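Quick note —
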Amino acid sequence: MDRREFLKRAAALGIGGAALLVPRSVRSVFAAARSHPGLAAVRGGEPGEMFDRGVAALGGMGRFVKKGQTVVIKPNMAWDVPPEGGANTNPALVERIVKRCLEAGASKVYAFDHTCDLWRRSYKNSGVEDAVRRAGGVAAPADSGGYYQKVSIAGGKVLKEVSVHELLLECDVFINVPVLKHHGGAGITMGMKNLMGTVWNRGEFHSKGLHQCIADISLFRRPQLTVIDAYRMMSRNGPRGTSPGDLRVLKAQILSTDIVAADTAAARIFGADPANVAYIRSAAGMGVGTMDLEALGVERIAL
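Predicted structure written out below.
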């Protein structure tokens, strides 16, 4: 995060006065962050290979995960659909991220999703649960309201409070790992839309206004890293898909420290104008992130 974001978060936590004098060690973190691009766009490789190249361009896994930290990874594993169906995040990508987090020193790595289909079948048949376990992580359940705690959304326009999974409140590092695809309600599902899988009552998103609620939930806990899987892109009949004809194999991936920028880049890959995606436009206007990719800094990598 930059110094402005650091101060904003500190103020939100009630830290003021002398505590806001930024020490030299923190200033060095700001300087290191400025020396790397804010977004990497990778094409032409397999999921794990593209992640390794992309995260290296952003400064390496050690920039995001420190020794002893707890990490939560939020893939899309909402659907009882096999990996080749493209409805869920590619399990090979999730496996690589879990592995790299543990190699960077994470004490625990969890993955969860509030699924749309039956959760046990979705976790298993998506291939994501097994991928998480192979890499040494924990696929945590999210099927009961008891796992969720009510929180306030500071600055939310229509979503003022929401119940979010307890792991999101307890973790040190949050990595958002959606799949890029068509969505019947939102038009496109990407990073911000994937956050709906962290909340218990998704129905109120639809009743209060889907796009604004997506922008509002993005205010609550911004991921340190968003990794958008565009290896197989569902270009129609989303979010579940109906046939192989719904898919385009792009072998692409977007990684960014800014969730709005990640969605902006992914919308362009999808073939949409980001300015016409209401939740991107709204989130940018609320200060969640930026749509100005070149100002953020972009590294484009072809494998």
